[in-house]
Amino acid sequence: MSSISNPPVLVGVDGSPVALAALRWAAVDAARRHVPLHLVYAIGVLGDFGSGFELGQFDFEGDRQGGLGALETARATAITESASIAELDISTELVDAPAIPVLRDRSKTARLLVLGTHGLGAINRKLLGSVSTDLARHAACPVAVIPETAAPPDRPVVVGVDGSRSSVHAVEIALNQAAFRGVELVAVHTWSDFLRFESSDQKQEEAEELLSLSIAGFGEKYPEVPVHRIVAEDRPAERLLMIGEKAQLIVVGSHGRGGFAGMTLGSVGQAVLHAAQVPVIIARSAT
Questions:
Q1: Residue environment code for 162-186, b if the CB has 16+ CB neighbours within 10 A, otherwise e
Q2: Which of 27, 81, 138, 176 has the most CB within a 10 Å radius?
């Protein structure tokens, strides 16, 4: 997380409808928190595709003008989207460099990085898809990946809990999101019989205790958020996706109890990120 006093919500802009959908989501999020919004358009696509493209295939001045236009449209959209909530402090940045290293670097001083699920056209879909996947693994702040279709705002926020440090970070992010949205938090923990010989009742009891410990201590900070707990025998990604169908947001840790230092994204986070039809936040951090 940034050491600056009021880190911005960072948005990757590319001019596509899904990028604008992500921008709208980010503008509302920033306005609710009264934090800055920083928009970045990266035009250095050659670094993302490597060899196989010649300089003559790209109109750099045209790309630059297109980027400036996309940023202006994004800025106007953000102002309109947030007008009924709060006045936004919006900054824009056009960078002649590949999107992935630029956004990785900017994430070091951001509170949240927001991306769309894919870009515009066959090449850009591949580009922004790779951007979203890479940054979900390597960004230095939490990453929100937003689909084009918005979820109803009265639905709950869902968080996956497994007792790891990463999932505790996810719980705090999810509670914060639920508080600003004025909705319920659904905390989900699953268990399995794999290589375990305790009774089902004992495993259920232990799982319920683990979930309670994982959310303990947050009640005083977020007393206004009702928490609904779900503990069940199941595969975690499958249960999160099922419950997430009726949510407005799913939050998961960047890796779980089976993860290791330096692991970039666990199997549950990866499965949810690629299959969810609602916004997903991967609870990344700088450490």
A1: bbbebbbbbbbbbbbbbbebebbbb
A2: 27
Q: What is the pLDDT of residues 172-228, one digit of tens each?
A: 999 999 999 999 999 999 998 665 667 888 889 999 999 999 998 898 899 999 999
Phi, psi of 103 (to 5 degrees): -70, -35
Determine contact, residues 190/161, Cβ cutoff 8 Å.
Answer: no
- Tell me the C-alpha distance between 67 and 13, whole Å: 9
Q: Which two tokens stand for residue 81?
A: 């989207």
Backbone angles phi, psi at 8, to 5 degrees: -85, 165
Residue 31's SS3 state is helix
- The label of the residue with tokens 């490597």 reads 50
> Is residue 11 within 8 Å of residue 112, measured between CB atoms?
no
Q: Tell me how far apart the alpha carbons of residues 108 and 1 are, in angstroms, rounded to a whole number.
A: 6
Q: Encoding tokens for residue 283? A: 């609870």
Q: How far apart (Å, rounded) are the C-alpha atoms in residues 284 and 104?
A: 12
pLDDT band with cut points at 50, 70 and 90 for residue 137? confident
Rounded Cα gap, residues 157 and 188, in angstroms: 11
